[in-house]
Design brief:
Number of domains: 1
Structural class: alpha/beta
Helix content: 25-40%
Number of strands: 12
CATH class: Alpha Beta
Distance between the termini: 26 Å
Order of helices and strands: EEEHEHEHHHHEEHEEEHEE
Shape: globular
Radius of gyration: 18 Å
Length: 256
């Protein structure tokens, strides 16, 4: 993606290390979406507001989905198809990897070891592709059969989309990542587990340093804390998908 420059690949337990992206210059506006979790109707409604808000803004506008775009909700397949598609002129979409995307790929590659993904929201994703997750506690043989069926129907473009998701994005002094970030380390030395799963109640930089915009930890309303903004308002259970707008030279943050 020519819009982004990649920092060194992040360390961690991912077999194929993911990149941590950076922007040399901030776009006119960044619209950060909380955890979508298969809620395609909420995603479309949020983007409709984004397109109206950004229509008269000059320059490039960036929409960032902060990970966990699949699982739990009703239509993960449609969400991936939407996010992988082209955005309207003047807008660019970027999806960051969440722990649920990571778990899905691990299940596809080694279902016997990663079968817990099904009970962790994966059953809904399987159904969205027309795959029956079967019983509550499938055997290893049944897990392998489910993964075989899923691999058979998963569009190659969807798999490529998931495999290509970056670990995060740095814009100025703002880090956008799914769950956490170790501010004591540069992007090249980040742990993928720390970024995907976080350190509850979240990572915080020192006074006057950078800030983290993230999801993963469900809150009743967007949470603004020193050095950290959490926008996961539990869309799949609350019906509320939060959009945070970052704009201006200082990256001022407002809820859309």
């Amino acid at each position: 993606m020519g819009f982004f420059g990649a920092r060194s690949a992040a360390a961690g337990k991912l077999e194929k290390p993911r990149r941590f992206l950076s922007l040399e210059a901030a776009p006119t506006a960044i619209y950060a979406l909380g955890d979508i979790h298969g809620c395609i109707d909420l995603l479309r409604a949020a983007e409709d507001k984004i397109f109206v808000d950004g229509a008269d803004l000059p320059g490039q506008k960036l929409i960032v989905a902060l990970g966990d775009v699949i699982d739990r909700g009703p239509d993960s397949a449609a969400v991936i198809d939407h996010l992988a598609g082209p955005a309207p002129a003047g807008f660019t979409r970027l999806t960051i990897c969440g722990n649920h995307e990571d778990m899905f790929l691990r299940f596809l590659d080694d279902p016997a070891v990663n079968g817990r993904w099904i009970a962790f929201g994966g059953a809904e994703t399987l159904r969205s592709y027309g795959v029956d997750p079967g019983m509550d506690a499938p055997s290893r043989a049944q897990l392998r059969a489910i993964a075989r069926d899923m691999n058979a129907v998963l569009p190659p473009g969807h798999r490529a989309f998931l495999e290509g998701l970056p670990l995060g994005l740095l814009v100025g002094d703002t880090y956008l990542a799914h769950a956490g970030y170790d501010f004591a380390l540069p992007p090249a030395r980040q742990s993928a587990d720390r970024i995907l799963w976080g350190a509850d109640p979240g990572d915080r930089p020192g006074p006057g340093q950078s800030r983290l915009v993230h999801g993963h930890f469900i809150v009743a309303a967007p949470e603004f804390l020193p050095g950290r903004i959490n926008v996961d308002t539990g869309a799949y259970q609350s019906g509320c998908l939060t959009t945070l707008k970052l704009s201006g030279a200082d990256g001022s943050a407002t809820i859309l």
